[in-house]
Specification:
Elements: H1 2-13, H2 24-44, E1 48-49, H3 51-54, E2 56-60, H4 68-79, E3 83-87, E4 93-98, H5 105-116, E5 124-128, H6 130-158, H7 161-185, E6 188-189, H8 191-218, H9 230-266, H10 273-302, H11 306-322
Parallel strand pairs: 1-6
Antiparallel strand pairs: 2-4, 2-5, 3-4
Helix pairs in contact: 1-9, 2-7, 2-10, 4-5, 6-7, 6-8, 7-8, 7-10, 8-9, 8-10, 9-10
Length: 370
Amino acid sequence: MSKLGNLGARLHRGEVSYDFIGHRKLWYGISILITITAILGLAVRGLNMGIDFQGGAVFTTEKTSVSVSQAEEYAKDASGHDAVVQKLGNGTLRIQIAGMDIQESNKIKNDLAQDLKTDPETITAELVGPSWGDQIANKAWQGLAIFMVLVVIYLAIAFEWRMAIAALVALIHDITITVGIYALVGFEVTPGTVIGLLTILGYSLYDTVVVFDSLKEQTKDLTKQTRFTYSEIANRSINGTLVRSINTTVVALLPVAGLLFIGGGFLGAGTLNDISLSLFVGLAAGAYSSIFIATPLVADLKEREPQIKALRKRVLAKRAQAGNEPQPAGAPDADAYDDDPDDAAPAVVGPRNQTSSRGRGRGRPSGKRR
């Protein structure tokens, strides 16, 4: 851990750096490949929408020794639809049947009671109409759209419109990947899933805004210097906040991983899967997009400006004139924004050697002093 802390301090001071901006085409290619895979999974498999969105019924039985697979067969025979069956911690069964006609619920309830060899009165039924599911879906989409608009407006005011566009692209990237993973895995989409999606958008924006704030601070009066290009300053901002982003993401992923893999996997609490999967995938995608998508995209947009183009030409011309290779992206320099850093006095390293005076010792009698 001490080595990681030392690495973080060196990255923050700019003593070491990785050229994220220089390899942005690689990151773009990886993101496009993952996004296409997610879209194909969504198109081929589709989302497993819960009864809150489709309508249907949820039957809860008393404690029983019937297995989950047997209960699924009983529910399918009784309703004619596929059913999702979960065994709860107290031994009861939760049988969820989506897309069914709620008028048939009493008949299905009686058939289930007969198959499970129990009294129909011991089985409780919760019914959700399809119109209610449509209302929930519409509200979810409206909330997501309003969230996106507010985010773009805020970032455009607090930073600039290029950063707002880059953040919006990163958010769409995160949502697409998360929804695609849901389609590929086949987990049920519930209102908890929507809550998880909105939550991960906040985490994604947090990492992105941290990098943008550092970038905004370091690019003040950028055109008054001739040491670094905008892309190099952007790269320094990523390296300076890299360890912070990694730490916050790992700390957030640990409890979510506990919910997903231990709670939903080993303990069988399937009701935790809907929100924990969206949080887990979204947090990882958000950390990735803030480093590899949002900031490189801002650098691409800024490098198209005439002033930034002119700055880049001046920087490269000055380096060529000096006969030096271009400094690596993120190279540290305390005088990065001076008008002419070459005029600065060189630092003295080690003991200073003084020149001997020509007149030293003249007129002094030789021999030992008494």
